[in-house]
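User: Hey, quick favor. My workstation is busy. Could you predict this chain's structure for me?
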Amino acid sequence: EVSILTPHGELLDEPAELARMTGRHVRYAAVHAFALVEPETGRAIGMASWGNAILSRAPLAEGFALGLPRAADDDHVEVAGSVHPHTGAVHPLIGVRYADTEPGHREPRCVVGGILAGVTIATAHLTYIGREQRRAQAEALATLAAERSGPLILTGDFNAPLDAAELAPLAGAGLRDALIEAGVPRGDPSRVTSGGAAIDHILVRGLAVEACRVDRGADNASDHWPVVADLRLPG
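Assistant: No problem, here it is.
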């Protein structure tokens, strides 16, 4: 989740700044922009684009950015049986149309990536609300993986654990959970990455996983802990 902002005409290019600070090349993508609103006055004071970034020691080749599916006006935000992820109570948006909720519930999402040393690398941030909307986005990622040959790494905040029904298309695409490959089972507390849930993932195809873990060394510097994996090409 990285932004380009223009508050009061000042350009704040977070992807470029991250690349400068780390000495890396950056590939960034966003598929929408929205007004920056000053909380005290309600005035629009600039613009923000909210997207995803990949940092790499060498530049990615054959870069791509693809928008992920969004729900339609008449689609329901949540379906019968949905529970609130934090409270466990019946979800208050069951049966509510997206057209009747705040715009952020359909915030456009994307996947960005490219090729490095023959490996396709991609990252995405799936919607935080609406299981069916998230399922459609997972299906789009599975299609992307199926259309690309060779080794592949897919990372991101999927806003759901990998055993959630809406993420089943990713398993069907032959993508393997790096934490499972490293011997960390589903449900293990060490998999938790945000708010008590394991929602940030590294999925691989055609690569050997030498190690994978959730790194909590930065404590509460972010509302998510990073997943770190050591991968290698077989042979």
